[in-house]
């Protein structure tokens, strides 16, 4: 794994993404995030990623060393964290009960970590080393959004999947720019986990979904324009 990473870092990232999609799509589709098997698979992915990063001392490269020093420059990430609560805007309603809710919650937290590490960490950093920053940002954001097409194979309706892909692309740009400008992936992991976890606790209504999608797209454009004007943390 180390040799592949050193010689072909983009391929290394792509293989992680493919493996994640191939394994998790059927598990989520057939068993659901409340399944212990889904949770175990996510634990394996998270453990593998963490072991690789720590054994090769790549915490700083992948933004796991801490928050940016000057939080004010990024408006304390308030726009991102406010948008991340969108699944709760139309009220509360539990998707599961008891142990199923606990397992689903843990799974969603791990999804936030794993997906940020493979899309923003591995893929974006690999692209950044070979391409211009704008290309790496666009590819990372679009790949993250398009990657949600696997939900079709999990039994999700096509229109819902398309809207989720657009929604994910908007978030992809936010997360990638936050990471690129601030050098820390931790805020992105937290916000990503918030979105996924709150989906288990929020009421599901059509108007609420459209409000969340619309606010995310508009908020992402405004916040990304602001972030784009900032110099990088180490500049």
Short account of what is shown:
The protein contains 9 helices and no strands. It is mainly alpha-helical and 235 residues long.
The geometry reads as globular
Rg (C-alpha, Å): 17 Å
- Helicity, in percent? over 70%
Number of H- or I-type helical stretches: 9
Q: Would you tell me the overall average pLDDT?
A: 91
How far apart lie the N and C ends? 32 Å
What class do helices, strands and sheet pairing give? mainly alpha
Total beta-strand segments = 0
Structure description:
The chain has nine helices and no strands. It is 70% helix and 0% strand. It has one domain. The mean pLDDT is 91.
Blueprint (SSEs and pairs):
Elements: H1 2-7, H2 9-30, H3 36-55, H4 78-83, H5 98-130, H6 133-146, H7 158-182, H8 186-201, H9 206-228
Characteristics:
mainly alpha; 70% helix; 235 residues
């Amino acid at each position: 794994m180390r040799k592949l990473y050193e010689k072909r870092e983009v391929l290394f990232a792509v293989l992680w993404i493919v493996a994640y999609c191939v394994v998790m799509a059927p598990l989520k589709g057939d068993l659901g995030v409340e399944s212990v098997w889904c949770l175990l698979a996510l634990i394996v992915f998270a453990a593998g990623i963490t072991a690789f990063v720590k054994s090769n001392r790549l915490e700083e490269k992948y933004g796991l060393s801490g928050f940016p020093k000057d939080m004010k420059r990024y408006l304390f990430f308030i726009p991102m964290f406010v948008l991340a609560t969108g699944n709760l805007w139309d009220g509360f309603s539990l998707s599961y009960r008891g142990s199923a809710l606990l397992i689903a919650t843990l799974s969603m937290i791990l999804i936030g970590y794993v997906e940020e590490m493979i899309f923003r960490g591995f893929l974006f950093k690999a692209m950044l080393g070979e391409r211009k920053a704008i290309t790496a940002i666009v590819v990372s954001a679009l790949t993250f959004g398009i990657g949600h097409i696997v939900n079709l194979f999990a039994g999700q309706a096509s229109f819902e999947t398309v809207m989720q892909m657009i929604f994910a692309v908007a978030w992809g740009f936010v997360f990638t720019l936050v990471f690129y400008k601030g050098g820390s992936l931790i805020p992105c992991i937290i916000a990503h986990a918030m979105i996924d976890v709150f989906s288990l606790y929020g009421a599901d209504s059509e108007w609420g979904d459209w409000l969340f999608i619309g606010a995310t797209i508009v908020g992402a454009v405004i916040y990304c324009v602001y972030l784009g004007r900032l110099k990088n943390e180490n500049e």
